[in-house]
Specification:
With 655 residues, this protein is α+β, with helices and mostly antiparallel strands. The protein is built from 21 helices and 22 strands. Strands 1, 2, 3, 4, 5, 6, 7, 8 and 9 form a nine-stranded mixed sheet that branches. The longest helix has 30 residues, at 384-413. The model is unreliable at 122-127 and 411-418 (pLDDT under 50).
């Protein structure tokens, strides 16, 4: 293989000045159309329509037109007409023997939108839009109604096929009408403008500028069976983006009830911003942004300003209401499940490339962020109930994101899938989940007794230190930092939340075994809350149980019995031990005080124990969720109300 830098052998084909081509007029567009419209596929084909429509929209935004008509013909021609000022038709002062109209249609980088004198804001910036359409059309006709006269000229593939002709008086008409047919040599013989796509493009323009009415029509023969595109429609939306948002949200419930929508004009008319945002319950996101009515599907600096403004305002409201958990909210949490619509108008927008898919003006970020944050601050403060509901939902989303991140990090730490178990777990020797069980016990003392009483082949024991964290009221940070919960999740090996995997549970049964007193009941409640919130699948699979350890030991002579509670003790005294003389009654202070043989006989041996399986029937699921939130959630006033409603029914307190 020859070295890259070896001098190649001389050939007869020399490279000289005559090989340097100079493309003139619109020839560069026909040679390299993708540079100007992004490609020659369906997207590029419809970009031709966008360029023509943008010119009419610029007239409307500038205040010189209020009506645009769009018609698609059966043969593939498309007409866009406005009632604006009309393209100038007088001779151009710098180009000999050409009208201004012909210069605009046949010369790249020509137009009236460079200085800002004719259009304060415009979607056309480079002076190539309509000339590119002309270059890539095998037929283009333009009619100009100006100064009560009608003028017309035709073109093909970028070159005029007729002279500019005056067609007579037009006393009741003004504006520009462009009819074009995409060139099949560029786009292929089968290429056709799609009515549905053109209709949606026209409708989006009507949403973006309230002062324009777009009259849409197309030949009915173009509409296939089942196509919902209308043959005729008048598109006018006085509500602007708020109307657009209502269409996107049709039939969907939202977290806030009413959307966050508004508009703002910067001082000295340096920019204008309009937005509409909602947070649907289904968290299905949708985002659309525009600059000077031009869609920016790749976002840019204006979208960054929207995200920053929304996030800063929500964090500030959290700080205002002393909700420290709001500090963890990010822009992804705010916008990830939201429907966001944004439109900005800038005097001098800067886009990446001719297709204008991304806005890069740095000042657009500041403009949008300032407007959105200020208005959202007032919006949140004016409706605390809605604000708190939204903030709570976004905090939950942030905590869920952090939990998933933590689980991914744990997964990355064990790339070889090597099993890592908590050090204090006394695992069983049987590898399969079927026939095995794990006891979750309270403290090291009870754990020591349970480890001695267990069947080492099938029973595992995990001691938990004291009362575990209440996951219903704790923040995601606290849940991540809690070692007891981390050990529990690691021991079970099945993940939590929507990452729970039933097939990965390491044990056939998970048994909560706590003391038979109030403290034990509280710990059991905390564990039940954890499983209900983080591993509901474990309950649905029928794998979660409550052990029933005894509270009392009754003995008389050689006869011994165990009682679960006071009622059971009284029952035994009235039946089994009735009339048997002096009975010795002892109360266990905890599982740790029981001898291993006693614990095995009463609580752990499958032959003699009693277990309660935890179940949540489908018909009781909503009621259970509400009760867990009421008793274990973040609002103490709900617990107080529960106690007050039932205080008169309490016969005795065990405290």
């Amino acid at each position: 293989m020859a070295d890259l830098f070896d001098s190649p052998r001389q050939t007869k084909s020399d490279y000289s000045a005559k090989d340097i081509e100079v493309l003139e007029g619109l020839e560069p567009v026909r040679r390299r159309p993708a540079m100007f419209i992004g490609g020659t596929d369906e997207r590029g084909l419809h970009h031709l329509f966008a360029e023509v429509l943008d010119n009419s929209m610029d007239e409307a935004v500038a205040g010189h037109a209020n009506r645009i008509e769009v018609h698609l013909y059966e043969d593939g021609r498309c007409t866009v007409a406005d009632n604006g000022r009309g393209i100038p038709v007088d001779p151009h002062p710098k180009v000999k023997n050409k009208s201004a109209l012909e210069v605009i249609l046949t010369t790249l980088h020509s137009g009236g939108k460079f200085s800002g004198k004719v259009y304060h804001t415009a979607g056309g910036l480079h002076g190539v839009g309509v000339s590119v359409v002309n270059a890539l059309s095998d037929f283009l006709e333009v009619e100009v109604a100006r100064d009560r006269r009608l003028w017309a000229q035709t073109y093909a593939r970028g070159k005029p096929t007729s002279k500019l002709k005056e067609k007579g008086a037009a006393p009741n008409r003004r504006g520009t009408t462009v009819t074009f047919h995409p060139d099949p040599e560029i786009f292929g013989r089968q290429a056709r403008l799609k009515p549905g796509r053109l209709f949606r493009m026209a409708r989006s323009k009507a949403y973006l500028f309230r002062g324009v009415e777009i009259r849409w029509s197309c030949d009915p023969a173009l509409l296939a069976a089942g196509d919902e595109t209308p043959a005729e429609a008048v598109l006018h939306f006085p509500g602007g983006l708020a109307d657009f948002l209502a269409t996107q949200l049709e039939g969907r419930a939202t977290l806030t009830g009413r959307p966050f929508a508004g508009q703002w004009v910067a001082p000295d008319d340096t920019g204008r911003v309009e937005w509409a945002v909602a947070w649907p319950d289904d968290a299905e996101p949708y985002a659309a942004s525009y600059c000077n009515t031009v869609p920016t599907p790749e976002g840019g600096s204006h979208e960054a300003g929207l995200r920053n403004g929304l996030t800063r305002a929500l964090r500030a409201y959290g700080e205002l209401t002393s909700n420290k958990r709001a500090a963890q909210i990010t822009a992804d949490d705010v916008c990830g499940g939201a429907v966001t619509l944004l439109s900005v108008f800038l005097p001098n927008p800067q886009f990446q490339g001719q297709t204008k898919e991304r806005l890069v003006n740095p000042e657009a970020t500041r403009l949008v962020e300032t407007a959105v944050k200020s208005h959202l601050d007032h919006w949140l403060s004016g409706d605390p109930e809605t604000a708190n509901a939204l903030l709570g939902a976004l905090i939950e989303r942030a905590e869920e994101r952090q939990r998933r991140k933590q689980e991914k990090e744990v997964a990355r730490k064990t790339p070889k899938r090597r099993l890592r178990l908590p050090g204090k777990l006394a695992d069983c020797s049987l590898d399969a989940a079927e026939g095995t069980e794990i006891f979750l016990v309270e403290g090291d003392s009870a754990g020591g007794s349970a480890k001695q009483a267990r069947d080492r082949a099938t029973q595992a024991v995990l001691p938990l230190r004291g009362k575990i964290l209440n996951v219903a009221s704790a923040t995601a940070d606290k849940r991540r930092e809690n070692q007891e919960l981390a050990d529990l999740v690691q021991a079970l090996g099945c993940g939590t939340g929507d990452r729970y995997r039933s097939a990965d549970v390491r044990y056939g049964r998970v048994i909560i075994m706590t003391d038979a007193d109030v403290d034990g009941a509280h710990i059991a409640s905390l564990l039940l809350t954890f499983f209900h919130r983080e591993m509901p699948g474990l309950i649905a699979d029928g794998r979660l149980y409550l052990a029933q350890p005894p509270l009392y030991r009754l003995s008389q002579g050689g006869e011994v019995a165990y009682a679960r509670d006071d009622a059971h003790k009284d029952e035994l005294l009235a039946t089994r031990f009735k009339g048997k003389g002096r009975i010795e009654i002892s109360r266990f202070k905890g599982l740790g005080e029981m001898r291993p043989d006693q614990l095995k006989e009463t609580t752990m041996s499958p032959a003699t124990r009693t277990l309660l399986r935890v179940e949540v029937p489908d018909e009781a699921r909503a009621r259970t969720d509400k009760r867990v939130e009421q008793l274990m959630g973040r609002k103490p006033e709900l617990r107080l109300a529960f106690i007050q409603e039932r205080a008169e029914n309490v016969l005795a307190l065990d405290v």
